[in-house]
Write a structure and sequence with these properties.
Two copies of one chain form a homodimer. Chain A is an alpha/beta fold. In chain A, strands 1, 2, 3, 4, 5, 6 and 7 form a seven-stranded mixed β-sheet that branches. Chain A contains 19 helices and 25 strands. In chain A, strand 1 and strand 2 form a beta hairpin. Helices cover 32% and strands 22% of the residues of chain A. In chain A, helix 17 packs antiparallel against helix 18.
Chain lengths: 610, 610
């Protein structure tokens, strides 16, 4: 964001900004006086305050005046908020009783940025985020390093010598403060932020090269999200980057990014076991680096192994006698070798559709087994209706930076987010009525989420249950990809899949596009079941919809925030989330590294083990 | 540049822009009517028109009404200029009788952008540049490729397969249209532009990895130009990039850039011989790729081997009997191995100073032999006085994009450029009077260019004769680096250097920091002396100052524009020039590739052979 605080004269020029400035002024005064009652009086009956680190050292949404009261009483004396100022006044709006816009503020130890929506002049949704710790700002822009130390300095070391020294020492004679397990987009983006903040960090990844987690997927894979949504921190894609980036190209980008950002990245490194000293909270992590054992002793461990956990493979009778190949979708390499062969793909989400389409294109005889209903969102429709306002060329031209888009998205409390989405998907249903009709006629079981809120809510609640259609649905509708739905699997036979209705589907290959477990499955694998249970389920909001049991959490479980196990963190999600939330995770880690007190407000309880 | 044409109402809001709009309107009307006389009447007695490709298919500055008349008479019917519009009106200024600002225009085949300065309402300096060929625009922004072809397409190839196919074929079963010899910043930046324009291009470079031309220099080397000046096309450095980038870091950036931009880049490839078919103008180029001979048949060859030619090593009696090591500065690796040893560095420009300082830091006993006077520009002073207005954090904050800065710089005709620079260096002299005094007291011979116009004019005229001081001058002034000046070299002896005054300087190492020949030396080496002579000297303006003999050329000789040898081009210079001029060279090559007629106006004559 290039904005700076605007003089009062200009604020006055936009009446919406003036209204916000007035509200913020009164809010600040109440907070400064530690007058909680006065602060609460500024909020409406329905109100939400989402805080990302600035007030709570947590990612936390409080709902209603009582919860806001509790937060203020617990944190106000410590946080000492001040200096609330409207910002980017040209964006402030006032329509249908809702006044909204940007602001900046400070706390005792940090600077922050926020977004507020007033309903009839009273606080409805409030977002506060930490942007930087005072005295620990990134060295960028005017504060960038000089590179060449001018003057003379006998015995000085060059950039290369210092870099080589660091690479030789880190993990051996000098321990990283943070160990990131998993070097995909999540680990890399977080690593870049920690690097800028000067937190000694090591990323370990089992693959040979950064980007391999993408390269090794099925060969037709392209990103399902568009380029405007996918930037990494600090280095935006060039302006000719494809809308939907092919997997190998994004792999190469991640590899280049890792080098450009000077990350300490150990490829071909398998994490074997991690154990925490209960007294100090510090970790001992055994890894195999290119086959050689190394013991790491980081203070913090971040699991950045994707938003998914360990691959799910359902247990089906006969798996031991089937003579063909069986593989999880994460192991499947593409359609090339299956020309003229018969393939059964179990599952009907993104990977299942992509894999079926590529198999069909390569001349395989392919059947999709749909087990439960699926939400289909045509890509163009999704771009136009759901993402376009924040992430598109139109948005860019209107001055919507990636950062502002991320914050705007973050400003909607999860509790009411579905109400923003339902109309979008109703429109999608209308716009694509013929398409959906043909799909259903082919036997495909469709849904739009339990409450009609569509793709993104499904993603947040359960991380599954949808396909962003880039062409495969047409193949299902017209029968090119054979569909078997509304009937269960009885067993595998020697030569295929036997359905409960007695039909047998001959198969040379069975692909289990059956998803992944919760991320704390990695903890069970690398630490212990006990610790995994203590941490509990990751992801999901507690919305009490399919695969997202209550109670209500208000934030994604365990993601980017303190967990019930000290010094154990989870980072992941799509490129958008990795980019945006890495900011808050990096600031939490930096504060701890610098010894800044970080009392966590509202640490989540664990309601589900995985 | 994000600007778009501004409505008349807004133009009127800035009176300077309104004045320009009026002038441009009359200029356009005269051109449309092919009324050369009316067009000339719009220019003052002193007037310059610099055209980069748009009107002349050349880089050409015409000076005075007679030359402008000639250009218009020769090119007007063909170019059909139209649609002149002011642009970025907020930047238009009107002060001291000079009105200046940006505009856009079109020709029959292209779109362009320009900058004009009126003196008392009449044209004083006019810049016209080609930005894109109609129908051959880069696929960027809204026109970027989709990446994933949605829908289904049996037999489709993935991005990776297509890329691998191209890499396997290009140079073997399929010939590049353009061969770029030299894969430093120049070849890489030009390659990126040609890639975007869809011109099949191959870059060959003798080093093992892109960036090695930097990596293999002396280890203390950092860029002498600041980061804002050094961006490559399309992918700006991240905002924490050091002000003066260390050589290995810029090497890694170039390597990453090459991959990100999908360049066809052959490392470890030595060019052995190139020959042109006189009938077709096409080339046969023999290269050794990783030791294996390959014959390439490109239509165009671009020499991008730096702004320098073959290293100059002066002939000195006794070079055959000296027992120590002798090396050119381009071969010198740094001071590490010379602790406690005696070193004589012949030369007193950038490399000489850097090398002396690093040797001293490493504990060598080092003597600099200054042969002729040198311009010293303290780095901070240079940033503040000369570059800051266009290339600095201040400039960025004021909305000065890299592209606008480049065009602004390009808008000053070379004929009068020194008049803009002389006051800058007079200020530098004043600001650093004490420093310069101490240097002279130590015996250092100083100059500010023949006419006091300082560093950049020296760079343009002769490409040598200066040091951007980042600390070594202090070591010269205080005697840490011993200085020998005002006395010639008699010979090398077995153990050192004998000076004409009879002193002998013992030496374990002699470094020849003695510069490079003209770039057409590469042509002599790879093609023939005859072709090198036909092309003539590269670089320099014909200013009739030291090492830049007249007659006046108006543009840098042979750089980025047609030469006397068809299909033979030169590309090079610092990062700024490589970035900016690669645009015009790439458009000239693209037009030829597409068969668009490119009649060259004012092809330079050759006045010097090298």
């Amino acid at each position: 964001m290039t904005a700076s605080v605007t003089p009062a004269a200009q604020v006055a020029a936009n009446p919406a900004a003036a209204k916000l400035a007035d509200w913020l002024g009164r809010f600040e005064a109440a907070l400064a006086a530690q007058d909680v009652q006065a602060a609460l009086a500024l909020f409406g009956d329905e109100c939400y305050w989402r805080d990302l680190v600035a007030f709570t050292w947590n990612l936390k949404t409080v709902e209603g005046r009582d919860q806001i009261r509790d937060l203020l009483e617990a944190r106000l004396a410590d946080v000492k908020p001040s200096n609330f100022r409207t910002e980017e006044e040209q964006d402030a709006t006032d329509a249908d009783g809702i006044t909204s816009g940007w602001f900046t503020f400070e706390t005792a130890v940090a600077r922050g940025r926020g977004y507020v929506r007033l309903k009839n002049g009273l606080g409805w949704t409030l977002l506060t985020t930490m942007t930087e710790l005072k005295g620990h700002e990134e060295k960028k822009g005017r504060n960038r390093i000089k590179g060449a130390e001018h003057g003379v300095n006998p015995g000085r070391k060059t950039w290369l010598e210092l870099r080589q020294e660091e690479q030789a020492e880190l993990g051996y004679s000098r321990q990283p403060y943070v160990l990131i397990i998993g070097g995909g987009q999540g680990g890399i983006g977080l690593g870049a932020r920690l690097r800028r903040l000067g937190v000694p960090t090591l990323i370990v990844d089992k693959h040979e090269r950064p980007g391999d987690a993408w390269r090794k997927r099925y060969k037709s894979l392209c990103l399902h999200d568009p380029v405007w949504y996918d930037h990494l921190p600090y280095l935006p894609f060039p302006d000719d980057w494809p809308v939907f980036c092919p997997k190998d190209k994004i792999g190469d980008w991640l590899e280049a990014y890792t080098k450009i950002m000077e990350l300490n990245y150990w490829s071909s490194t398998e994490c074997q076991h991690a154990e925490q000293d209960p007294a100090t909270g510090e970790w001992t992590v055994n890894v195999l680096r290119e086959g050689k054992p190394v013991t790491l002793r980081p203070t913090h461990v971040v699991f950045a192994l994707g938003m998914s956990g360990v691959p799910n493979i359902p247990k089906i009778p006969g798996q031991d006698i089937f003579k063909g190949r069986q593989e999880h979708s994460s192991q499947h390499r593409g359609g090339d070798e299956w020309k003229g062969k018969k393939v059964v793909v179990i599952g009907s989400n993104n990977s299942a559709h992509d894999i079926c389409a590529a198999l069909w294109e390569n001349g395989a005889d392919v059947t999709m087994l749909q087990r439960t209903s699926t939400h289909i969102a045509p890509s163009d429709s999704l771009m136009k209706l759901a993402l376009g306002g924040l992430y598109s060329e139109d948005a860019v031209e209107k001055g919507m930076t990636t950062y502002k888009a991320d914050l705007t998205f973050a400003s909607i409390p999860f509790r009411i987010m579905h109400t923003f989405h339902i109309p979008v998907y109703e429109q999608m249903k209308k716009d694509n009525a013929d398409f959906y009709g043909r799909l259903e006629k082919a036997g495909f079981m469709l849904d739009f989420g339990d409450d009609g809120s569509g793709l993104f809510m499904k993603y947040l609640r359960r991380g599954s249950g949808y396909y962003i259609d880039v062409g495969a649905s047409e193949l299902v509708a017209n029968g090119s990809i054979k569909l078997k739905s509304r009937v269960g699997i009885e067993s595998l036979t020697e030569n295929g899949v036997l359905m409960k209705d007695g039909t047998e589907l001959p198969a040379d290959l069975v692909v289990y596009a059956t998803g992944y477990g919760s991320m704390n499955g990695w903890v069970a694998k690398l630490v212990s079941q006990e610790v995994a249970d203590k941490v509990g389920k990751c992801w999901g909001l507690g919305s009490d919809t399919t695969k997202d049991p209550g109670p209500w959490e208000g934030e994604l479980r365990n993601m980017w925030k303190p967990t019930q196990v000290n010094n154990l963190w989870f980072h992941g999600g799509n490129l958008h989330q990795s980019r945006h939330y890495s900011q808050y995770l990096s600031l939490q880690l930096k504060a701890r590294y610098e010894g800044i007190p970080t009392p966590v407000y509202g640490l989540q309880e664990v309601h589900h083990k995985g």
